[in-house]
Amino acid sequence: MPIIGCFAPDPREPSAADQPEPCVTLPAPAETPRRMPPAKKRILDAATRLFSTEGIRAVGVDRLIHESSVTKATFYKHFGSKDRLIQDYLRSASETDLLALDERIHAADSPQAGLAAIVEAVHATLHAEDFRGSLFVNAAAEFPDPADPVRVIIAEHYEAVASRITELLQHVGHPLAGEAADRIMISYVGALSWGHVGDPIGASVAFRRTIECVLAPEQLAA
């Protein structure tokens, strides 16, 4: 079920009398990750650390078992296979990212501030000491088949981000919210990629400017 984030009306929009209520319906926030058995958590934590720093295919099951201090039987009891662990790793990362994004958006007092919060989130990610690129982009590079379950999870993650951006743009009153959200998503993924292999400062600034261009008065009046 979606949740309602109430924002102050945009002064550029019609008066309150013309609008039923100054609220925006946002996608339901990601669920708080559920507690899991300690051994399963150790395996997932080890996978998160190793997959994100060394790559998914480069890390074998024996390494994961050693790093998480479990037996082979325990590993297969909780995950069944490395493929299942990879999928759970990406789902867990998606839940964590979306939960953090939702907290920023719903702490904002306007849809514009919600979009600014996404800019702040990207800036913080790009300047984190342990940032090694988007783990979703990195994973996609290792799984080229779009029909692979890994790629499906990645696509669902980015669709979830895009839906949040689209909802914010709709409440701002953008006449082409979906198209504008696509433009922002290209910049979003690009910033996380360029910020890793190139210039994190430039990537952060470029992403902010994309948001500013999308929210320019002439764009909203188009």
Find the CATH superfamily of the largest domain: Tetracycline Repressor, domain 2
What would the principal axes of the Cα set say about the shape? elongated
Question: What value does the Rg take, in angstroms?
Answer: 20 Å
User: What fraction of the residues are assigned to beta strands by DSSP?
Assistant: under 5%
The number of distinct structural domains comes to: 2
Instruction: Specify the biggest β-sheet.
Output: 2 strands, antiparallel
Work out the helix count. Answer: 10
Spans of at least 5 consecutive residues whose pLDDT stays below 50 are: 1-24
- Give a count of the beta strands, DSSP E runs of length 2 or more: 2
> CATH first level of the largest domain: which class?
Mainly Alpha
Strand order of the largest sheet: 1-2
List the helices and strands in order: EEHHHHHHHHHH
CATH topology of the largest domain: Tetracycline Repressor, domain 2
CATH structural architecture of the largest domain: Orthogonal Bundle
Structural class category: mainly alpha
* Chain-averaged pLDDT: 88
The helix content, as a percent range, equals 55-70%
Kindly, what is the distance between the CA atoms of the first and last residues, rounded to a whole number of angstroms?
32 Å
